[in-house]
Structure formats: C-alpha cells, structure tokens
C-alpha cells in the first residue's frame, strides 16, 4: 500500500515539481497540500498558477489546499515534502516534526544544524541515521531531513567520485538558471541581456553544505570534510539547469582521463527516482549545456565534461536540473531513502 504524503508549499515552483514527480509514484500517494493563508480553502487548481510542462494531475487539482499548520494536516500522513520559503520552514517545520510527521525538506533553514541530516542519497546515505541522534535530542516522534541547495547538489557528486584521491581545495563558479530563484525571484528587466555576479547567500551554502555532505558520520557525531571550498555564484538568463565550472586540487595525482573514469563509474542507487547512471561525462569540450543536457536521466543525473589539467588543478564543468535533481527530485529521493530505511 502506498504511503500517504503531503506537500508543504505545494503551489510554488518546487511544490509544482514535487506534484509532477509524485503523481503517479508507486510508493507515495498525495493526500494533503498546504500553502499560505491566501491559498488555504481553494482547490489546488484555483490556488496554483501551474507552470510545469505537463498538466496538473486531475486528482490533485481537486484537492483543497490547507494552511501550513500541523492541526490542518490529517494525522495518517506519514511523510511531508517541504518546499516552503526558508523563513516559513524555520518557523513551522519543527512543529510538524514535534507533531510526529517525518519531513523531507528543500528549504535552507536548519541544513547546517548538527543533528539534521543533509543528504544526497548516492553520496552520504549513511548520514540518515543522524535522525536517531535528532530524535533523542529533540524528543520528536517525527524527523527532519534536508537536501542541499540546488547548486551544491550539482557539483558534490563529482567531488565524491574523486574523494579517494584526497580533496585539498575546490573552486567553483556557477552559472545558475532563473528558476532557482522561484517564479517571482528575478525580474525580466534584470536578467534579459544580462548576467548577475552575486546571488544572495548562495556562495556560503556551496562552501559549507559541500563539506557537510562529504563529511563522516560515526554513528553519534558528524565531522565535516576539511577540504577548502571557494564559490562564486552568477545568475544567467537560462530557465532551468545550473552549469558550474570547477577546479579541484587533490593530494594524489589525478589525470583528466582517470577523473572521467571515476565519475562515470561512481555508483547510483536502486531507489525508484535514482538515475541508472549518476554522472555522465562528455568528451566534447563544449558540453554539458543547460538546454541540451539538463534532462539526462529524467533530470536526476549530473552531466560533466571539459576535463583538463590546469595550473590550478583538474578543471571540469558540470550541470544538473535545478528544480528536479536540485530540489523536488532530491526531496523525493530522500523520501524513498527514508522509506527504504524504515523511517516511515
Ligand atoms: N527553485 C529552486 O530551484 C530551488 C532549489 C532548491 C531549493 N529551493 C528552496 O525551496 C523553497 C521553495 O522555493 P520555490 O522556488 O518553490 O518558492 P515559491 O515559488 O515562492 O513557493 C513558495 C511556496 O510557499 C508558500 N508560502 C509562502 N509564504 C507562506 C507562508 N507564510 N505560510 C505558508 N506557506 C507559504 C507559497 O504559497 P502561496 O502560493 O499561497 O503563496 C508557495 O506554495 C525555498 O526555500 C527555496 O530556497 C528552491
């Protein structure tokens, strides 16, 4: 029988992607949708300005949107996917966990908390057991697990594939799509014919979340990886797909050919939303490109290319679909991992 799930922030850009990925899903059945007070009481069709490239599933369209409050969500829901603005997530996600719900969240609040697992299943599935520490410390029946920022997810799997060579330093420059800022995030007058060389607190997220993801969990405590990471984030006028230029210095020698082999061989998982192959490496130096390569593996794979030696270490480019692999798909994958590991 499918697990009954809800979506918090269901009307937003990520919420709509969540609904696209969850309906249909063999393990999950959407049974609750929440948004702001402005949307509460409306049917989903009335409340959501639907912008995803497939129709609203009929059964979801007629569900009534409720306010984002534990008292408004049925008790028989086992799992909530959260795509709330981070200020709202910070205020309400702990209330849901305290009320017994397991929350798989996209929002940036609490990602760096010591007892909150920040998980990309192919990279650090073992960190999920930090939930035992979380439940002990907070006394929650529920639980809170996070996926990282969309631009962090794009480059961390490639680093994980190279980690055995000893990561010393990483420099990353991003070219991020406008959908990463939400529908109302960047005005057309700002971004058309332009590029914006700074994105809020995004640099800090890449630098800190990557070290947490690549860290070690000993069953009680998480130690962050000590690799030095420096990020520069740029907004460009693409719709979907974050492209990143990465420079990596390793302790052991690592040729571009060997690095490409390691990336291609890096294992995916058997979860329903895992891509068959996690990292695809292009030989052509002008790939990956957002428009052509963001849907590889149904938007759940990472594309890489342009591997070369430079005076600053190994250099390459990587790309991921920011609202699928970088947001909604990442939360769904964490939900599948929670189910497989008996947390639901
Ligand atoms: N876009 C991306 O690529 C991406 C990637 C990774 C992570 N994220 C993160 O995911 C989250 C959602 O991003 P988004 O782009 O989907 O944002 P969005 O399009 O602005 O959607 C926000 C959602 O939250 C609801 N909401 C707003 N204020 C609320 C309140 N006070 N109480 C309850 N619900 C409220 C909105 O409902 P109404 O429609 O009723 O206003 C809507 O459903 C953010 O934390 C973002 O940082 C986004």
From TrEMBL:
Domain Semialdehyde dehydrogenase NAD-binding, chain residue ranges per copy: 4-131
Name of this chain's protein: Aspartate-semialdehyde dehydrogenase
Annotated active site: 150 (acyl-thioester intermediate), 242 (proton acceptor)
Family under the similarity heading: Belongs to the aspartate-semialdehyde dehydrogenase family.
NCBIfam families, alphabetized: asd_EA (TIGR00978), PRK08664.1 (NF006416)
UniProt key word Lipid biosynthesis: no
Keywords of the record: NADP, Oxidoreductase
EC number from the UniProt entry: 1.2.1.11
CDD domains given in the database record: ASADH_C_arch_fung_like, ScASADH_like_N
SMART domains, per the entry: Semialdhyde_dh
Pfam families (UniProt xref): Semialdhyde_dh, Semialdhyde_dhC
BP term (GO), one: threonine biosynthetic process
Molecular function GO labels: aspartate-semialdehyde dehydrogenase activity; NAD binding; NADP binding; protein dimerization activity
